[in-house]
């Protein structure tokens, strides 16, 4: 079963930037559709952005124009560049397969606060 390890989170001021990384195990990574999800305190986990095996992407309206997803199949890694961060972006960010997630990793905490 493929596993994911997220990293790159932290505390950032509004308007700042972070780059998240997600390293995957297993040999089938290149054929997976992948996504970043997030879960804010007291809320359900939500889909943020998807990158398909053909590298096409689909963004939630709330992050469109601010976040950019990319993937490096040779490194089995998915990235999320987050710019112009807002306090409402505060959440634990997870990566996983799409549309049917596998096992969830521990995620990486992103806190946007002054």
Please list the strands of the largest sheet in the order they lie side by side: 2-10-9-4-5-6
Largest sheet: 6 strands, mixed
Number of helices: 0
Shape: globular
Looking at how many chains there are and whether they match, the oligomeric state comes to: single chain
Our measurement of the CA-to-CA distance between the termini, rounded to an integer number of angstroms, reads 40 Å
* Helical content class: under 10%
Overall pLDDT level: 96
Overview of the structural elements:
Helix content is 0%, strand content 48%. The strands form two sheets. A six-stranded mixed β-sheet has the order 2-10-9-4-5-6, with no helix packed on it. 30% of the residues are buried. A hairpin with a 6-residue loop joins strand 4 and strand 5. It has no helices and ten strands. It is mainly beta and 114 residues long. The model has no long low-confidence stretch (mean pLDDT 96).
What is the secondary structure topology, with strand pairs?
Blueprint: E1 4-7, E2 10-12, E3 18-24, E4 33-39, E5 46-51, E6 57-59, E7 67-72, E8 77-82, E9 91-98, E10 108-112
Parallel strand pairs: 2-10
Antiparallel strand pairs: 1-3, 3-8, 4-5, 4-9, 5-6, 7-8, 9-10
Identify the notable features of this structure and list them briefly:
4-stranded antiparallel sheet, single chain, 6-stranded mixed sheet, 48% strand, 114 residues, mainly beta, 0% helix
In a nutshell, what does this entry contain?
The chain has 114 residues and is an all-beta fold. It contains no helices and ten strands.
């Amino acid at each position: 079963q493929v596993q994911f390890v997220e990293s790159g989170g932290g505390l950032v001021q509004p308007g700042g930037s972070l780059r998240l990384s997600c390293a995957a195990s297993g040999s089938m990574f290149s054929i997976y559709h992948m996504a970043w999800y997030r879960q804010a305190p007291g809320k359900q986990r939500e889909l943020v952005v998807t990158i398909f095996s053909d590298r096409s992407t689909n963004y939630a309206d709330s992050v469109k124009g601010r976040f950019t997803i990319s993937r490096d199949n040779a490194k089995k890694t998915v990235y999320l560049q987050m710019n112009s961060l807002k306090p409402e972006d505060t959440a634990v960010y997870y990566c996983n397969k799409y549309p049917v997630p596998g096992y969830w990793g521990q995620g990486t905490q992103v806190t946007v606060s002054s």
